[in-house]
Each structure stands twice: as structure tokens, then as C-alpha cells.
Amino acid sequence: MNELIIEQTPKTPQIDLNQLTGDLLFYGRSIPENATKLYEPVLNWVAEYILLANPTTNLRLDLEYFNTASSIYLAKMLKVLTRIKVPEYVLIIHLYFPVEEFNELNELEDISDAFSPITDIFHDATTSISIKLYAKDDRGEIIKTRLVFIEPNY
Length: 154
What we know:
The chain contains 5 helices and 7 strands, in the order βββαβαβαααββ. It has about 150 residues and is of the alpha/beta class.
């Protein structure tokens, strides 16, 4: 299985999917004019990846902005990733926020409400899942982290 790399443009994110390391990286802006053209190869790659997944898959979503079409494809990708067949394997979803937004997510209830569209996808997961939040300062440096959700599926 080959690595899939899609170079960043002003309207599309850098995408780097690596089967050998289990790292799936998305960063930048995702406001493509044709989301299907951008994300369909990604979905195909992910569907193939789950058949040969690493024990730990790190999905890193460091997107400063994404449109509705992108969010639909990201949700589809998450749905596929939750189908990794080995229950002992783990999917870690890394989400990056400006420190102000990170600080607003203080209460567990706030976190649950903010991520309910994502966590709803996990109900039929066949692998363990966790979400890790990162706070970034104005320079893009990570200054805080928080593990917010773990879904063991045993």
C-alpha cells in the first residue's frame, strides 16, 4: 500500500496518509471547490488502510477552517476508520484549536455537546477510539492538551 500525499493549496489542506506509520495528517484550510475530487481518493485510501491498519492510527486534523462539504467527507472518513477490525487497535483523533476556543471547552458537558456529531459516529465502532485536544498559541505552538474521550470497544 502506497503513501498518499496531496499538496496544500490556498483552498485545500496538506494531506499525508502513511500506512507504515499509521499517521493520517490533514492541516491547513479545506474549502475546495470540488470536495469529491479532493476527498474521494482519500476515502478509497482509508478503506484500503483499515484492512492493513497499524495497532495505533493517529488521525491528525489541524484544520484552521473547513466548509460543509469537507465536514461531510471527514465524517465519512471517520466512519470508515471506526471499522478497523482488530478491537485491540486504537484510533486516536487529534484535534487542534486556538487557545481561546480550547479554554472555552472547560466542562465535560461542553465537550460532549461540541463533539456530539463526531461521537455519534462511534456508536458502532469495531476498534477503540480516543480524542485528544490541543491548544495552539498565536505562533502555532501547542501549549495545552486534554484527552477528552475514550471508547473502549471490548
